[in-house]
Specification:
The chain has 401 residues and is of the alpha+beta class. 52% of the residues lie in helices and 12% in strands. It contains 14 helices and 12 strands. A 5-stranded antiparallel beta sheet has the order 1-2-3-7-6, with helices on both faces. It has a 3-stranded antiparallel beta sheet with strand order 8-10-11. A hairpin with a 5-residue loop joins strand 2 and strand 3. Helix 11 runs antiparallel to helix 13. It is globular and about 60 Å long.
Length: 401
Amino acid sequence: MSQYHPLNEQEAIEFARTIPNLFQPGAELASREIGDGNLNLVFHIRDKHSDASVILKQALPYAKVVGESWPLTLDRARIESELLMIQHELCPSLVPQVYKYVPELALTVMEDLSDHVIMRRGLMEGHQYPLFAGHIGAFLARTLFYTSDLGMNQQHKKMRVKQFINPELCKITEDLIFDDPYTDSPNNSFDEAIRDEAEALWADTALQLEVARLRHGFLTHAQALLHGDLHTGSIFITQESTKVIDPEFGYYGPMGFDIGAVLANLLLNYAGQEGLSETSEQRASMRSYLLATVKDVWTVFEEQFRALWDKDCVDRMSRTPGFQDAYIAGLLQDSIGYAGCKMIRRVVGLAHVADIDRISDAAAKERAQRIALSIGKSLIKGHRQADSIEQVLEIALKAVQ
């Protein structure tokens, strides 16, 4: 089994038996392939007669959404497993434990989170998670600070940049988020009902200038070790617990990209409430919760990031009075700009979000798409002037009036 090949369910079961201290000898195991992404196989292995279970995640050498004509490196499995280990060490309650990584099979064996639900699904069903902002704000503060030049030796950080070079998956981001939506690309996918919006993006040079600035930051600004794809489909959640998964797009980049991804996906659900909520009261309640969460995510992040800086900053020059304020101001602006890019991509680009795509009423779906694009464009165009998270809330409120 050591030579690379995609595992089947029986092979996944037999491999799971070899992991020490997981299953009793002779346990009756069942396997279910539960991967709903585009890049991996995910097997849920459980003992039929006990609570013992585990997840096996195997990278595929191509993107399932396209097929074998879109080859992908298997090294992303190494990146994901090593990044999960780093993030688990920094935030043990917020990241699943990795039990083993098998490089020859591009296989990661990790903690089962079946008692959680994917956050995107939970939000679509109208659930609210009052602890989420505190959890994800802490995750962002700790993982970004302690992998940056602020929180670790600069020479060690340079070696870690080398460790997490991820050119193939970064290329996906560079194209699908920062290029394709702004031209008539064959990779784009959008409803004909909003073709006017797509064509307006292609012609909006002022918007494209701001996207070019943000893209340049993504290409060149190795600020911290990013998750790289931190959307609500990469977060498992309950009312009491939050777990961040799937960092295979991880690399060293601008901190605002991860923060902005979280904000964008909350705002995409906010737009999707046009068709997700059954009553105007439910819509108002969810939208109020989502905007409060956007604000709280940033507030918690900023408070904890500043506290870590004051306590553990290893760089003497970074303690120069005024530098912390300037740095945080730049992070806010970056986060807002990247949030806008993420929103636009999810409406007219290759891969959408279920929060909007699964709206059954065509008119409500179109309204949701136009709301999302309106918010996204405003965030991008105004990000360099932003000085408060409140401006994001104002943009979102205006888009639904």
